[in-house]
Amino acid sequence: SNHIYHQYTIQVADDKRNDLQQFLKVNGVHCVVYYPVPAHKQNAYASYYTGNDLSTSEELSKSVLSLPVYPELTFEDQDYIINKVIEYYNGK
Predict the structure, then answer these.
(1) How far apart are CA 26 and CA 62, in angstroms?
(2) Which of 12, 31, 45, 47 is the most exposed place for a label (fewest CB within 10 A)?
C-alpha cells in the first residue's frame, strides 16, 4: 500500500498561527485549519463527550496549521513552502 498524503500539519507556537497562515497565503501557499473546533465541542459529537479533560485537543485546535501535501507536489514546491515558513520565523 502507499501513503495517501492527506495532511501535513504543523503546530505553530506563541499564538502565531493566524499570522503565519496569512503570510503563507500572501506568498501563494495554500494552508488550512481543518479542525478549528475540537470534535468534542462540535454539536454532532456533543452526546459522546463524557466531560473528560480534553485540554490538549482544545489547545491544538488553536495552534495547528496544515500545509500543502499531495503526490504531485514537486521538491521545488516543497522547498518553497519550507523556505517561506523559515522566512516568516526569521522575520518575526
Answers:
(1) 21
(2) 47
Q: Nine-digit cell at 41?
A: 465541542
Read off the pLDDT band of 74 (50, 70, 90).
very high
Q: Which residue has the cell 452526546?
A: 47
Residue in the structure block whose three cell numbers are 506568498 = 27
**Helix H or strand E segment including 10:** strand 8-11
Q: How far apart are CA 82 and CA 84, in angstroms?
A: 5
SS3 content of the chain, % helix, strand, coil (to 5): 50, 10, 40
The C-alpha cell of 29 is what?
501557499
pTM strictly above 0.90: no
Cβ-defined contacts of 51-59 (< 8 Å, 24+): none
Is pLDDT at 92 greater than 70 in this prediction?
no
Rounded to 5°, the CA angle 16-22-24 comes to 100
